[in-house]
Amino acid sequence: MSQSESILTKRLRKFRRLKRGYYSFLIVTIAYAISFALPLIANNKALVVRYNGQFFFPVAGYHAAAEFGEQAIGEADYRELKTRFEQEARGNWVLMPPIPFGPNEALLDDSGSPPNPPSWRHLMGTDDRGRDVLVRLAYGFNISMTFAIVVTLFGEGLGIAIGAMLGYFGGKLDILGQRGIEIWSSLPFLYTIIIISSVVVPVYLPGHAQLAQPSFWLLVVILSAFNWMGITYYVRGEFYREKVKDYVGAAMVAGVSDTRIIFSHILPNALTPVVSFAPFVVVANIGSLVALDFLGFGLPAPTPSWGELIGQGMENLTKWWLVFYPNGVLFLTLLLVVFIGEAVREAFDPREYSRLR
Amino acid sequence: MSSAPLLEVRDLKKYFPIRKGLLSRTVGHVKALDGISFDVSAGEVLGLVGESGCGKTTAGRCILQLTEPTSGSVRFEGRELVGLPRRELRSLRQRMQIVFQDPYSSLNPRLTVGSILREAITTHKLASGRAADERVADLLAKVGLSPSHAARYPHEFSGGQRQRIGIARALAVNPRLIVADEPVSALDVSIQAQVVNLLRDLQRELGLTYIFVAHDLSVVKHISDRVAVMYLGTIAELAGSAELYANPRHPYTVSLLSAIPIPDPDRRRNRIVLRGDVPSPANPPSGCRFHTRCYMAQPLCSEQVPLLREVAPGHWSACHFTEAVAGK
Questions:
Q1: pLDDT score for B17
Q2: Do residues A283 and A333 touch, judged by C-beta distance below 8 A?
Q3: Which of A6, A7, A247, A352 to mutate to test the interface with B (most CBs of B within 10 A)?
Q4: A241 is in which domain, residue-wise?
Q5: pTM for this model (two decimals)
């Protein structure tokens, strides 16, 4: 080998060789990246409107119906506008996204009463309020992934910092810290979140905008606050093992500060359990959000959420598209992330040999 | 010892508590270091030898305050180190460095050799940017490695090369004192000689002071000006290197010397084989700590602790019958 390689580079190379995990990783990352462009792909707002020689970009901003010569109050209905313009044939046109339905749009003017079964218009049917299931699942993917990743970052970050402190300084701090963690872990998570959700309900005061409600970030904070304990044990253990090694002593003798020793010397050597756990923590967090949404303590309606759709499937067991698609998408996502997790675990295995390929 | 010593160690003790039971009561102490005293003058190499578990390594670590001593005093350049706040210690550490025994655990596997060396340099603001890079290249050349090795990771080096990197790291901050904690014990014999010679050459070139810890008397003989023989946390004998090897005045030294293999199968000699194991430092023998294994022990030895006394100019021995040892 002519080129010097860090351990990380080697592990990344090994990860790339584990095809199942690597392809899962590519699929999930690309799907997640695309999901940020969803407003351009699935939306009830037009991408471009050409009206009386002028261009409008409704995706980027609000345009009242009156601006396009419509009688209605509120925002323009671009699908209607499109049919009207086509009938008029006066050089005005509307460019809709490939899927011209919004995630929170109740399509009550469809024939039949919702939920409507899959058709060419709605590939996965509509839910009980006439919203397109495919569009809601797609938006829900973005929200679920973002939520899970953010909670994982916050929770693991907190866990790493606390575990590192306990492990590095040891002694009384360690004993007290661990007892504190044990007490904190024994708080029942679900009850706490139910209590918080019932206290923090949308509050309206005269003359004020809505004050507070169980929002995305509130849920992130609550879940992170209950999700950091597990990793502290591993990080603490790694620190106990690493801190007595001579390279730490050498750094101390070189006069390197504690903070630098913790973060740039020991931490990189203590990250293996963190990295190996991360994908599984993401899986757990997606699960938590779905469960909370299912129970109705999650993100406020009408946020497109998987748990809420699965709940609808529960209530409408005969409407197979409400049972099959939400559960299928959840299953597929979790499966792919677990595949990633397996490959990461294997690539970071300190032993070189492999049983899983 | 004409000039003022660079390092004065006085009655240095390190007891590790033995904890037991539910409440971790302290039920006793492992007396790893039980009152050692010596001076090291600038430019001198003091060898510290003894069996495993005699406290050599603890002595080295206590001198650098890597392990906090239980009591005693360590004065470096006339300044007391014991009890010094970490912040002040940090700046002093530029002048005292350590080379570790295990070349595998003493280098951070995540950092390149260059960044390991750079860190010491930049921490003490000795150089930065290009100047630091040049200094890294200098250091690598000094320990017999190529400057291009700076971009490599420790796992790409052999044990001997890693030990050279460890030496380069110690040299990076221009120290005056280096504690070499069994720097060659983990290496092959052929490599041992190279590393010992490197250490000796560097010492002469840079005027360094070493405390050279080893369990191998022949290695120590090669490099040391003076040698301290340790047994169970105390110093048994301390003398100039040549004097100690030619004229040992403590039975323990005599037996250690007799254990050095001589590459001559025909030569017959009086081998003194010590009986038994080193007693537990948690419960050291009464009187002279060596009396349980000494071939010339007398009743007095188990009753009275022999003091380290000067038996000849510059030659100290802690034995009641040191004259008898000399006559033998």
A1: 86
A2: no
A3: A247
A4: 7-37+134-347
A5: 0.79
